[in-house]
Amino acid sequence: MDSLVFHIDADKAGPNLLESIKAYYGNRRVQVIVKPEETTEELIARNEAATYEYALPYEDLARLANALDNDESVDVLAEVTKFKVTK
Predict the structure, then answer these.
(1) Is 1 within a domain?
(2) CB neighbours of 60 closer than 8 A, spacing ≥ 6?
(3) Which residue of 16, 51, 61, 76 is most buried, as measured by CB atoms within 10 A?
(4) CA-to-CA distance for 10 and 8, rounded, in angstroms?
């Protein structure tokens, strides 16, 4: 799936944003979702409140990264979930 992610200040968005989307996707149907970006403080607070964390050994993380680099089919969510532990 091709995707574009724009991190911009809302007051600086202009017509070039829409033109960029049109130029990239041509006549393909697209989905546009606009939401406020989570701040670092909000992300940290949410992570600290979680009752679980993920403890991936380096070797497993490297294996996943290599598979993705080689365009291999990988169920990342299933792989990472194997390392979910309760805090």
Answers:
(1) no
(2) 79, 83
(3) 61
(4) 6
Look at the chain and report how many structural domains it folds into: 1
- For the entire predicted model, the pTM comes to 0.50
Q: Please give the chain's pLDDT, 87 residues, in tens.
A: 578 888 899 999 898 999 999 999 999 999 999 999 999 999 999 999 999 999 999 999 999 999 999 999 999 999 999 999 999
Residue 5 inside a domain? The answer is no
Q: What mean pLDDT is reported for the chain?
A: 92
State which residues form the domain around 15. Answer: 10-86
Residue 43 lies in a domain: yes
Which residues have a Cβ under 8 Å from the Cβ of 54 and sit 6 or more positions away? Answer: 80, 83, 84, 85
Q: Which amino acid is at 38?
A: E
